[in-house]
Amino acid sequence: MTTKNFNLDLDREERMYIGTYLLERINDYMGNIREIRVSPELDVDAIVQFAQKLSFDHPVGAQEAIDHILEGLIQFQVHTPHPRYFGLYNPRPNDMGIMADTITAAFNPQLAAWSHAPVAVEIENYVLKEIAAKFGYSSETADGTFTTGGAEANLTAVLTALIHHFPSYAKEGLRALKAQPVMYASTESHHSLVKAARSSGLGTDSLRILPTDSQLRMNVRALQQQIAADRAAGYAPFLIIGTGGTTGSGAIDPIGALADVAEDERLWLHVDAAYGGACVFVPELLEQLHDFRRADSITFDAHKWMSVPMGAGMYLTRHRDILHRAFSISADYMPKEGAGLDRIDPFTHSIQWSRRFIGLKLYLSLATAGWEGYGKVVRQQAEMGERLRQELTRSNWTVVNDTVLPVVCFTDIRVPAESRSKFVSFICEEVLRSGQAWISIYEMNKEPVLRACITNYETTAEDIIALVELLKSVRAKMMN
Ligand SMILES: Cc1ncc(COP(=O)(O)O)c(C=O)c1O
Asked: How far apart, in whole angstroms, are the C-alpha atoms of residue 342 and residue 433?
């Protein structure tokens, strides 16, 4: 019997034809991307109508369905792979990452149990160890797990720190604890921590949000004072979260000083280096990188600066047994073939159960680009960030943040302070409306400023100059 009547599969010839056709269309998209508007017009009715155009009562052919979705995506998305997307930490996805996701979809290895996908699990273990070593973790003790992204890695950090400090939490929950646990992060930390506070059962009141200095780095003195006040009030401090490259301005918390406090106070230190962690490929870029190894755990996202498609995050730790203590579990229905083999089933080692082969994107990318390739990517983007700062300054913009990362926050201080917020909104809206670039607004020290970040290894000096010219012409329009 054939499954053809279900219309779930194509036959071999059709698969070849449709596959080749799709690859050609992807090739065209990548090759002609500069001709596409970076961001769409947000016509809600048109978008909803487009999404509902195909009826499931009247199935269409594969090519028609593919044409439909490609048309929709080309017309209605912010093109994060565009070299003039100066956006959030969404990179251009690299070719080997795209190939890896295709292989993963086709082979669909199930990484929950080691014995179901042993080579996939071992590849992930290998990549995690290599990346952990780049952060300075010892291969003897380092451990980690791939996650869907930074948010899951940060949640893993909160859970592992809880288990480390309060071993009874796993069985008896928070109710059994004598004192309410509290954790510390800055106003600039990523809001996935708020969700982690909620989903761990700690509640958001347990997340102490600390002030920063003028460059948006956590204020260490305020941290020490808050810990002392919390202890005096009967709370149980357990975790400090520093950020190695904040989402808004690329600020890097003083990780060495945070590590000192964590040691003195016997707290877990987690470093959220979801984006900035890629500095490990160009260590001279970030002086304080050697302090990161003092962290108990680290979040690092490959789908940010390592340019693989979403979602590929990592939770790394220097405590070899902590993932086991947090997530070990047994279930009768799970495969037992690997039981005597001294290997770990990933479902006993992380939040996830069924697991996609997330690590393949990184494995194939590293296998073909090598550390050297990634070093060049990071260096090139850092240079483009520097070039952007120079061009902006030359055109009478004022860069207001200070970071080695290619995240540039800027404004025009010649505009009177009381009008600057309106000015910045106008500039950003006009840039987006032009379709020629994507930038955003971020509030720094209570003042909205413009933000542009280099997220694409194809972004060139010409793209930087084009952005600055566009900004200049929009500003002139406002002034007139
Ligand atoms: C510093 C930081 N941490 C965590 C996250 C969340 O990562 P994800 O979106 O991969 O879950 C982000 C996202 O931009 C981030 O910038």
From this structure: 58
